[in-house]
Amino acid sequence: MGLKTLLLVPLLTVLEGGLADGHHPGRSMPGSPYNISQDDSGLQQVVLDAAYRYNNQSNDAFLFRASAIHRAQRQIVKGVRYIVDFDISRTVCRKRDNSNLSNCDFQPVGRLHQTFQCHIELWTIPWLNETVTQVFLCKP
Ligand SMILES: *[C@@H]1O[C@H](CO)[C@@H](O)[C@H](O)[C@H]1NC(C)=O
Ligand SMILES: *[C@@H]1O[C@H](CO)[C@@H](O)[C@H](O)[C@H]1NC(C)=O
Ligand SMILES: *[C@@H]1O[C@H](CO)[C@@H](O)[C@H](O)[C@H]1NC(C)=O
Ligand SMILES: *[C@@H]1O[C@H](CO)[C@@H](O)[C@H](O)[C@H]1NC(C)=O
User: How far apart are alpha carbons 126 and 130 in whole angstroms?
Assistant: First the structure.
């Protein structure tokens, strides 16, 4: 993988959703973020959904999935906010094969081996059944 390839990888920025009442989390958030376990089921879902979204938006022939979680935090603020730093790596599964992502092995070290660092901030409001992705960025 040369530098050229790396530069061609899209920087993903996703901002979607939005609350009908126009509230946004500001600096005056009541609860502070606290670390949560990597095994947390809510966290696992956030990371899996992020991988699906990454794959949907990338031009890569292969699927990527999370390979490491470096920071996992939750914040209680009018719902639940997740702040996660994780790595996403290329798997051996081709997109066109519609594989179950959870079962895809990572590429072995070599030409196709590649990892990006992602940061996501996601806010869920369970009683409104709403999820707002505030930040989602992946970079080499
Ligand atoms: C994938 O992206 C397309 C357009 O880019 C969008 O219409 C579609 O809903 C997305 N699918 C998922 C599962 O996010
Ligand atoms: C929270 O996790 C981060 C990253 O793993 C770590 O650097 C930090 O020390 C942890 N903070 C607490 C209070 O445990
Ligand atoms: C994918 O595989 C995992 C683990 O084997 C399983 O828990 C999950 O239900 C599967 N998902 C789909 C959509 O088949
Ligand atoms: C929340 O959304 C999910 C998925 O869109 C849907 O299956 C579920 O019925 C909804 N629940 C409520 C309470 O609206």
Answer: 6
Spelled out in words, what is the top-level CATH class assigned to the domain 31-139? alpha beta
For residue range 85-136, what is the model confidence (pLDDT) as tens digits?
999 999 999 999 988 999 999 999 999 999 999 999 999 998 898 999 999 9
Ligand 4 midpoint to CA 41 (Å): 18
Q: Is 102 in the pocket of ligand 3 (CB under 6 A)?
A: yes
Cite the residue boundaries of each domain of the chain with CATH code 3.10.450.10: 31-139
pTM above 0.70, yes or no: yes
Angle at CA of residue 21, ends 133 and 42, nearest 5° = 35
